[in-house]
Amino acid sequence: MPTPATSFNQSVIDEFRANGGKVGGPFEGGDLLLLTTTGAKSGKEHTTPLGFVREGDLLLLVGSNLGGPRHPDWYHNILAHPTVGVELGTEEFEAIAVPAEGQRRDRLFARITAAEPGYGDYQARTSRILPVVALERPAHEAGIPQEAGNLAEKMQQVHLWLRGQLRHVRDETEAHFAATAAHQGPGAPPAPGLGLQIRQHCLAFCEALEFHHTSEDAHLFPTMAGYHPELRETFDRLAEEHRTVARIQGELAGLLTGLEGADPERFRAELARMSEELTRHLDYEEEALLPILAELPWPPGPPVPPGQPEAVK
User: Are residues 285 and 159 in the same domain?
Assistant: First the structure.
């Protein structure tokens, strides 16, 4: 049976969606968005109406829970699954949820309380530090076409995005090592842990990669194999490469399970291995499949009934 809080949230969600993001009651006139997270334990989607404050291109959220003693459920969800859905007015998009840390968290919280003093009151009610979460819209990678006219171009879009996100995580990791060297001197061991920013970005990359490969294994490869039996060995090799990449992905995810941070040296080594294996796999997949996929339209049209004249297709 729905709780009063659940029923209230649902009424706000319904009003938000029915009125292009405008709501009345206690939220009237305020900045409100809908955040859809994936349950840390259930794996189910949950949508929560939340106030936010803008900071440049970022949307800032506070895990206030009205000043209660525990972090809200949505905060635990974003730590397990950083990729979230955002509804802002009539706009819908995906973002990566990254909790701020240390001095950055304090600076952003001061910015938030200057705009919305009520969050300062919530902080005063509890001994826990209210988390500040920045919603980052993944930057458009230079060189990635905005449109795709066929399935080959769509695959290239996805591959370029995956390559870019992996490069971004590697750059952040190397910056962590460089900052340690600058602070402690060359050859010093890196600072313990990697920080939530690297953690969240890497987990989001791993989730996107897993979704892409799972979709290929379940849909694209079996369909293509039915039309191109001569490529059976190619699809066998691609499937085996997916398993190899998945094992490395599992190692990375395992290292990032705890919030205290992964061992930097182990993480760096696994990330380098991921880069090597994934690059090899994507290169081979493009070489083998792009010529065939270029003949298939994107987005795919409705299925053609058997016996349909070719001219109508």
Answer: yes
Q: Are 66 and 16 in contact (CB under 8 A)?
A: no
DSSP string, 39-95: -TTT--EEEEEEE-EEETTEEEEE--GGG-SS--HHHHHHHH--EEEEEETTEEEEE
* pLDDT confidence bin for 139, thresholds 50/70/90: low
Determine, yes or no, domain membership for 36: yes
CATH number at residue 274: 1.20.120
96 and 157 belong to one structural domain: no
Confidence at residue 185, expressed as pLDDT on a 0 to 100 scale: 62
Rounded CA-CA distance 69/198 in Å is 27
Range of the domain at 204: 151-293
Specify whether the CB–CB gap between 225 and 232 falls below 8 A: yes
Instruction: List the strands of the sheet with 83-88, edge to edge.
Output: 45-51, 32-38, 83-88, 91-99, 132-136, 58-62, 53-55
